[in-house]
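Today's session is about reading a structure prediction critically. Students often jump straight to the picture, but the first step is always the sequence itself: look for stretches that repeat, for charged clusters, for runs of hydrophobic residues. Only then move on to the predicted structure, which in these notes is written as discrete structure tokens rather than atom positions. Here is the chain we will use throughout the hour.
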Amino acid sequence: MSNDQKNLTIIGCGNLNRNDDAVGVIIAQRLQQYLAAYPHPHVKVYDCGTAGMEVMFKARGSKHLIIIDASSTNSEPGAVFQVPGKELEALPDPSYNLHDFRWDNAIAAGRKIFKDDFPQIVTVYLIEAAILDFGCELTQAVKLSAVIVFAQFKVIVDKSIEYEETVSS
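Below is the predicted structure for this chain, in token form.
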């Protein structure tokens, strides 16, 4: 991670009560546990569940934002997509219901409201869900992808830590 991108926010989204929809939240919770053991002052991880408005405010002030969520595109369950946020951001339709304000709306609204104080680099990791019904278990394919994505984020965080130690020495 370069010096101008050392401020990273990772946000997991999803619903813990809808099987594979929980994958983003579960990865974020694992990353929080990892950072509790291996702290890094320039990496923040949040479990934002289904609260799009919270995504917007938690991302504020970061240089780089990563969002993790489940997807439902009729692709192979467990498939992992890494997509630039610019391709997914969308201003919200007028509504009186905050539940309608999702992370894709948070990216667009955050850029508009916070301008330079909102991450310029946004990456979205989407893991294709197999089951989105009520339940508390990830399917095997999504569980395996969650392990792989978690390992990728661990490398990103570890490289950030190594970079900071090199600069501090």
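Discussion point for the tutorial: The chain has four helices and five strands.
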